[in-house]
Amino acid sequence: MENIDFGNYLFKLRKENNLTQKFVAYQLDVSDKAVSKWEMGKSKPDLDKLKLLSALYNIPLSELLNNQEKNKKVKISKIVLTGGPCAGKTTALTWINNYFSKRGYTVLFVPETATELITNGVAPWTCETNYDYQKFQIRLQKVKEQIFDEAAKKMKNDKILIVCDRGLLDNKAYMKDAEFKRVLSELGTSETQERDSYDAIFHLVSAAKGKENLYTLTNNVARTESVEEARELDERIISAWTGHPHFRIIDNSTEFEEKLERLLKEITSFLGEPEPFEIERKFLIYYPNVKELESMPNCTKVDISQTYLKSNGDIERRVRARGINGDYLYYLTEKRNISDIKRIEVERKLTQNEYLALLMESDNKLHTIHKTRYCLSENNQYFEIDIYPEWNNQAIMEIELSSENEIINIPKFIKIIKEVTNDSDYKNYHMSKEMPKELIKKRSK
User: Fold this and answer.
1) Cα separation, 332 vs 307, whole angstroms
2) Are residues 329 and 426 in the same domain?
3) Structural domain harbouring 58
4) Given 44, 69, 94, which residue is the final one in a domain?
5) Last residue of a domain, one of 69, 93, 110
6) Number of folded domains in the chain?
7) 221 and 103 co-located in one domain
8) Do residues 159 and 182 share a domain?
9) Residue range 397-402: average pLDDT?
10) Are 438 and 383 in a shared domain?
């Protein structure tokens, strides 16, 4: 991710010289995959290889080095560790620090704001109203994160992991929806902007759901919930974060140590250590009851506009606008398949101006995909149901998995027509090749 601009520069040089990746790899005595990774920004050539590239592309070495340094960026990843009461968060933070520090990361922790306030006398029961307290907490959360974001950019290390011990959307679980929107409006922001400002969300399920014998309040003086209240709160927190593009739920299906190992595996996969990959399965389903989905607290609606760019060989490039009611965030994604259900995926956020500029590189042979996505948290798994305006009797449901053998618990109200994970007809890229009328005719049969 941090070398993506330099990768694009290398790709441009190779194309200007009318060379293939295979030819460059042969000349430098490396694999095709190595050249591909350089151009994807996932790694960079060492000095010896830069010297060979300088000769091959007939360009001064100093120019290559200057471009590499100019495009060098610190890789800052900002994640949220959240969960229900007595989920193991405190221990998990220690594991995260030890594990990723050993892998070259500077790990920064944004402390849990609620605990800081409550243990120092500022609480829902000491403030005039719960609304006042929650507003104080949200304001402090935003200030703390801003300071950590700024500090991360000044770090000497080029790999920074910011871990928020709970994030701003946790407050939503303790407020009425109208109150939460009112606070955000007063602060000049929105739920979409705040939720998706984090790169990934990891939720540890409360011991009150499946490990009741381990449930305790002794490890956090700010907690007062009974087992039943803890279960309800766990569900509300999951619902609050539902809609984020990278949301993972770590349940209690294993012993505690293995639960934390699964958490580390999920974070490692997200960070791309050693490579960023996603494991995804896809199903063609009968058209769901949209009104039912929109009435569910554990389901969030998102509008997506997806445009494909001119691509480099086997690398698929796209830009995406993602949000609701005109409130959008923008992303650039580059993908390369390495198996039927596993692929390397590199994604970064864009400013609106960057997004508009990249639209100028769109592949005019492909049309833009528009769809409404329903993000659904069910059975401790995260489903994405895509509704296309051209379809009226079916839809696509996707789920990202932590392993290729993970068991999927399909929601009871979802009716599967067939699995289409390996069916190219149902890939967005393939669908974008068809004119909308042809797509309607083909899919509605």
Assistant:
1) 10
2) yes
3) 4-69
4) 69
5) 69
6) 3
7) yes
8) yes
9) 91
10) yes
What is the distance between the alpha carbons of residues 353 and 349, in angstroms, rounded to a whole number? 12
pTM (2 d.p.): 0.78
**Contact 413/436 with Cβ under 8 angstroms?**
no
Q: Is 439 a residue whose pLDDT tops 90?
A: no
Amino acid symbol at 207: A
Diameter over CA atoms, the chain:
72
C-alpha to C-alpha distance for 267 and 327, rounded to whole angstroms: 28
Side by side, the strands of the sheet bearing 75-83 are 106-110, 159-165, 75-83, 200-204, 247-250
Q: Is the pLDDT of residue 305 over 80?
A: yes
- Give me the sign of the Cα torsion angle 255, 259, 265, 268: negative
Q: Are residues 250 and 159 in the same domain?
A: yes
For residues 397 and 414, is the Cβ–Cβ distance under 8 A? yes
Beta strands in 356-435 (DSSP E): 369-378, 381-387, 394-401, 416-419
- 393 and 258 fall within a common domain: no
Question: What CA–CA distance (Å, rounded) separates 138 from 231?
Answer: 23
Tell me the backbone φ, ψ of residue 221, rounded to 5 degrees: -70, -15
| Cβ contacts of 371 within 8 Å, gap of 6 or more | 303, 304, 306, 386, 387, 388, 389
